[in-house]
Amino acid sequence: MPTLYHIGFGPEDLGDPPPTLALLSGDPQRASQIARTKLQKVRTLSENRGLNSYLGLLPSGKPILSATSGMGAPSLSIVVNELVQLGIRTIIRVGTSGSIQEEVPPGSVVISKAALCRQGAANDIAPPEYPASADPFLTVALVEEARRLGIPYALGITASVDTFYEGQERVGSANPHLLRSLQGITEEYRHLRILNYEMEAGTLFKMGNVYGFAAACVTGVIAQRTRAEEPLLDAKGLAVERAIELAVAVAERFA
Ligand SMILES: O=P(O)(O)O[C@H]1O[C@H](CO)[C@@H](O)[C@H]1O
Ligand SMILES: O=c1cc[nH]c(=O)[nH]1
C-alpha cells in the first residue's frame, strides 16, 4: 500500500510492530503536545495539510500514533478512514468542548458515552438514526482513570454539530441571522441532559460502529455556554492537559 493521500504516510513508515491505537486531536498543536510531553522516541510522520502525525512510544514501550483530525466531521472522516486502512483499531479523540450545563465547569473534562450527531458527513456513512455510541470498554476505562487520577469529569451525551457559531447557537458572530430552527436549541439540549458541544465525536462514533474499530472521546471544557459564548483561554491549558493525561492513561491499557 502506498502513502495515504491526505495523512501523508503509509504502512512502511509505521515500524514493527506497527501501532494499533491513535490519539486524535482536532488541533495539530495538541497532537504535537501529546507527542512531545507524553511519548518517547518520537518520529514526525507527516505534516501534510496541517494533519500532523507523530509515531512514538508510551512509557511502557508500546507504539501509538498522535494524529490530527482537523476541525469538523468531513476532515475527521478522511483522516479516520486512512488511519483504519493502516491498521489502527482504537481511536481516542482528545478534544475541547463547550459546556451547556452549569455543573460541568471549565477546566474539567467530558467523557462522551454517545453523541447527538447533527453532522452531514455522518449521513454518508450511516443513516441519521444509526447510533453514535462510543466503545463501552474504552469509555469505562476513561472514567476509571479519571477517578484514579482525581480529574474532575462528567460522563454523558455530547452534541456533535457541524458549525462552531450557528450550530452551537452563538449569536455574537458575523452572521446577523440565526435560523429559527436553531434559536433555543441549546436550552432544549440542556433539558435533554446533553452536556456539551463539539464538532467531531458523533461522526467518529458512527464510523467506529460501522467500520468495526473502538472509538472514544474525552474533551477538555473550555467554554461555559450557560454564561458566555467565548472560549475561556485561562481554563484551556488545564482542561487540555487533563484530557491528554486521561487519554494517555487509557492508551497504556489498550495499545
Ligand atoms: O479542540 P478540537 O479537538 O479541535 O475540538 C473542538 O475545537 C474546534 C472548534 O474550536 C472543533 O474541532 C471542536 O470540536
Ligand atoms: O464551545 C466550544 C468549545 C470548543 N469547541 C466547540 O466546538 N465549542
Describe the structure.
It comes from Meiothermus luteus. By secondary structure, the chain is α/β, with parallel strands linked by helices. It has one domain: Rossmann fold. Helices cover about 30% and strands about 25% of the residues. The chain has six helices and nine strands, in the order βαβββαββαβαβαβα. Strand 7, helix 4 and strand 8 form a beta-alpha-beta unit. The protein is globular and about 55 Å long. The relative contact order is 0.20. The model has no long low-confidence stretch (mean pLDDT about 100). The site of uracil has 11 residues, from strand 5, strand 8 and strand 9.
Write the layout of secondary structure elements.
Elements: E1 21-25, H1 28-38, E2 40-46, E3 53-57, E4 63-68, H2 73-85, E5 90-99, E6 109-118, H3 136-149, E7 153-161, H4 185-191, E8 194-198, H5 201-211, E9 214-224, H6 233-254
Parallel strand pairs: 1-4, 1-5, 5-9, 6-7, 7-8
Antiparallel strand pairs: 2-3, 3-4, 5-8, 6-9
The structure holds 1-O-phosphono-alpha-D-ribofuranose (R1P) and uracil (URA).
1-O-phosphono-alpha-D-ribofuranose (R1P) binds next to strand 5.
